[in-house]
Specification:
The protein is an alpha/beta fold and 114 residues long. Helices cover 38% and strands 11% of the residues.
Protein backbone atom coordinates (compact mmCIF):
# COMPACT_ATOMS: atom_id res chain seq x y z
CA UNK A 1 0.00 0.00 0.00
CA UNK A 2 2.38 2.66 -1.27
CA UNK A 3 1.76 6.39 -1.57
CA UNK A 4 -1.22 6.15 0.72
CA UNK A 5 -2.39 8.61 3.36
CA UNK A 6 -4.24 7.29 6.36
CA UNK A 7 -5.68 10.41 7.93
CA UNK A 8 -5.87 10.82 11.70
CA UNK A 9 -9.31 10.35 13.19
CA UNK A 10 -9.60 14.05 14.05
CA UNK A 11 -9.00 15.10 10.43
CA UNK A 12 -11.91 16.31 8.30
CA UNK A 13 -10.59 13.94 5.61
CA UNK A 14 -10.79 10.85 7.84
CA UNK A 15 -13.15 8.21 6.47
CA UNK A 16 -13.75 5.18 8.70
CA UNK A 17 -15.38 3.29 5.84
CA UNK A 18 -12.18 3.57 3.75
CA UNK A 19 -10.04 2.46 6.69
CA UNK A 20 -12.32 -0.54 7.27
CA UNK A 21 -12.08 -1.45 3.57
CA UNK A 22 -8.29 -1.33 3.76
CA UNK A 23 -8.23 -3.47 6.90
CA UNK A 24 -10.49 -6.00 5.18
CA UNK A 25 -8.31 -5.96 2.03
CA UNK A 26 -5.06 -6.71 3.91
CA UNK A 27 -6.67 -8.96 6.53
CA UNK A 28 -4.26 -11.70 7.70
CA UNK A 29 -1.73 -10.90 4.97
CA UNK A 30 1.63 -12.62 5.25
CA UNK A 31 3.31 -9.29 4.52
CA UNK A 32 2.01 -5.72 4.51
CA UNK A 33 4.34 -3.22 2.83
CA UNK A 34 2.81 0.15 3.58
CA UNK A 35 3.58 3.85 3.36
CA UNK A 36 4.88 4.94 6.77
CA UNK A 37 6.67 8.09 5.70
CA UNK A 38 6.22 10.21 8.81
CA UNK A 39 6.62 9.98 12.53
CA UNK A 40 3.45 11.19 14.22
CA UNK A 41 5.01 14.50 15.27
CA UNK A 42 6.12 15.17 11.67
CA UNK A 43 2.72 14.34 10.21
CA UNK A 44 0.97 17.34 11.78
CA UNK A 45 2.81 19.61 9.34
CA UNK A 46 2.44 17.27 6.37
CA UNK A 47 -1.24 16.28 6.34
CA UNK A 48 -2.51 16.18 2.78
CA UNK A 49 0.88 15.34 1.27
CA UNK A 50 -0.26 11.78 0.45
CA UNK A 51 1.73 9.84 3.06
CA UNK A 52 0.84 8.16 6.33
CA UNK A 53 2.12 8.45 9.87
CA UNK A 54 3.33 5.63 12.04
CA UNK A 55 0.44 5.30 14.49
CA UNK A 56 -2.14 4.93 11.71
CA UNK A 57 -0.06 2.28 9.94
CA UNK A 58 0.40 0.32 13.16
CA UNK A 59 -3.33 0.55 13.87
CA UNK A 60 -4.29 -0.83 10.45
CA UNK A 61 -1.70 -3.63 10.60
CA UNK A 62 -2.79 -4.66 14.08
CA UNK A 63 -6.51 -4.59 13.31
CA UNK A 64 -5.88 -6.58 10.11
CA UNK A 65 -3.81 -9.13 12.03
CA UNK A 66 -1.05 -9.17 9.40
CA UNK A 67 1.90 -11.45 10.09
CA UNK A 68 4.67 -9.09 9.04
CA UNK A 69 4.65 -5.31 8.71
CA UNK A 70 7.19 -3.53 6.50
CA UNK A 71 7.46 0.22 7.00
CA UNK A 72 8.01 1.69 3.56
CA UNK A 73 8.41 4.99 1.71
CA UNK A 74 10.64 6.85 4.11
CA UNK A 75 10.95 10.64 3.97
CA UNK A 76 14.07 11.54 1.94
CA UNK A 77 15.05 13.95 4.73
CA UNK A 78 15.21 11.10 7.24
CA UNK A 79 18.55 9.57 8.14
CA UNK A 80 19.16 5.92 9.03
CA UNK A 81 18.89 6.86 12.71
CA UNK A 82 15.45 8.38 12.07
CA UNK A 83 14.26 5.20 10.37
CA UNK A 84 15.67 3.11 13.23
CA UNK A 85 13.73 5.32 15.67
CA UNK A 86 10.59 4.91 13.57
CA UNK A 87 11.03 1.13 13.64
CA UNK A 88 11.61 1.12 17.41
CA UNK A 89 8.48 3.19 17.97
CA UNK A 90 6.40 0.92 15.72
CA UNK A 91 7.61 -2.14 17.62
CA UNK A 92 6.80 -0.45 20.94
CA UNK A 93 3.31 0.48 19.71
CA UNK A 94 2.68 -3.10 18.58
CA UNK A 95 3.98 -4.51 21.86
CA UNK A 96 1.72 -2.15 23.84
CA UNK A 97 -1.23 -3.56 21.87
CA UNK A 98 -0.17 -7.13 22.67
CA UNK A 99 0.44 -7.72 18.97
CA UNK A 100 2.70 -10.48 17.68
CA UNK A 101 3.30 -8.78 14.32
CA UNK A 102 6.92 -8.90 13.18
CA UNK A 103 7.87 -5.37 12.09
CA UNK A 104 10.72 -4.32 9.83
CA UNK A 105 11.71 -1.13 8.01
CA UNK A 106 12.50 -1.28 4.31
CA UNK A 107 16.13 -0.62 3.47
CA UNK A 108 17.96 -0.23 0.20
CA UNK A 109 18.72 -3.60 -1.44
CA UNK A 110 16.41 -5.51 0.94
CA UNK A 111 15.04 -8.76 -0.38
CA UNK A 112 12.07 -10.44 1.25
CA UNK A 113 11.27 -14.06 0.53
CA UNK A 114 7.62 -14.96 0.93
Amino acid sequence: ITDNELYLENSPHFNQHEVDRLIHFVNKADLLVIDATYMDDEYAKKEGWGHSCLSRVVDVADKAKVKKLCLFHHDPDQYDEDIDRKLSQAKAMLEARGSEIHCIAAREDDKIVI
